[in-house]
Amino acid sequence: MSDALDIALRLIAVFVAFLVFPLVIGQTEHKVMAHMQGRLGPMYAGGFHGWAQLVADGVKFAQKEDIVPAGADRRIFQLAPAVALLPYLLVLVAIPIGPHNAVGQNLDAGIFFVLAVMGVGVLGSLMAGWASANKFSLLGGLRTAAQLLAYELPMLLAAASVAMAAGTLSLPGIVEAFHWWWVPWQIVGGVVFFTAGLAELQRPPFDMPVADSEIIFGAYTEYTGLRFALFLLAEYAGIVVLCALTSVLFLGGWHGPFGADGLGWLWTLLKTAILAFGVIWLRVTYPRLREDQLQKLAWTVLIPLALAQIALTGVIKVVIS
């Protein structure tokens, strides 16, 4: 009975985090962009610092009519938002937040699990583009597929480098094996991993598949109301997962200058929050890449850097041993 209760409590904690953290990221993006761009609207909703903006957005989406195009593949069209969102809930189960088994489920091959499941989330965009019976949506889905193929490889190679350094595929094991002197020689892999993750989430400046000014929000053109909101929620959930994974793999997770045991979870959340702020900052700062620039960055820059990082990791491991 105690084991069942422990599992239930862990699953509830993961589910609550899944419901809360993406909404916090969404609210923060409203405020950060409002400050950086001088946008006064999001700062007034509800009074103090626009606290009710997120509530207003939720009410707006709930009130919109749920429309399914007449020529659409109805079942696939309706399932696509769930396919885009739910993989991030599964990934959160395997990400450790602190020491002493503070993780939903410690998997021996956790790094393989999280990367494989994150790749499934992109299928939601492909399903939406294919099922919408709209040429703009289909074009957005095809761009999503091309972007996934280009950026999945450097992301996997960068993660393989840190797994080699730690000598384990377990995410808690990688954090436990972490040393601060890893940061200088794993930083290239961290940048590659983070950049490739942004591209897989289709976040600016890698948002060609959802280019609102060119192909009318890509694969999601025909979506309205709560179904469209689920795609936006999947994006914010993906930001949480990407930033948490980057902090666990490349920044030491719960390790900090002090309080690694008692405050380890706080260090993990702090590193995740700083990286999430960086994601928002990139959206405000950089223009959208062209499709050829996007592909060139992946194949001629990120993949060679990831391969060089693996080679460096192998050399250092041999020297240390």
UniProtKB/TrEMBL annotation:
Its main location: membrane. Its EC number is 7.1.1.-. It is an enzyme of class 7 (translocase). The keyword Electron transport does not apply. It catalyses: a quinone + NADH + 5 H(+)(in) = a quinol + NAD(+) + 4 H(+)(out). GO terms for molecular function: NADH dehydrogenase activity; oxidoreductase activity, acting on NAD(P)H, quinone or similar compound as acceptor; quinone binding. One of its GO terms (biological process) is aerobic respiration. Pfam families: NADHdh. The keyword NADP does not apply. It is found in: Cell membrane; Membrane. GO terms for cellular component: plasma membrane. NDH-1 is composed of 14 different subunits. Subunits NuoA, H, J, K, L, M, N constitute the membrane sector of the complex. HAMAP family: NDH1_NuoH. NDH-1 shuttles electrons from NADH, via FMN and iron-sulfur (Fe-S) centers, to quinones in the respiratory chain. The immediate electron acceptor for the enzyme in this species is believed to be ubiquinone. Couples the redox reaction to proton translocation (for every two electrons transferred, four hydrogen ions are translocated across the cytoplasmic membrane), and thus conserves the redox energy in a proton gradient. This subunit may bind ubiquinone. PANTHER family: NADH DEHYDROGENASE SUBUNIT 1 (PTHR11432), NADH-UBIQUINONE OXIDOREDUCTASE CHAIN 1 (PTHR11432:SF3). This is NADH-quinone oxidoreductase subunit H. It comes from Streptomyces inhibens.
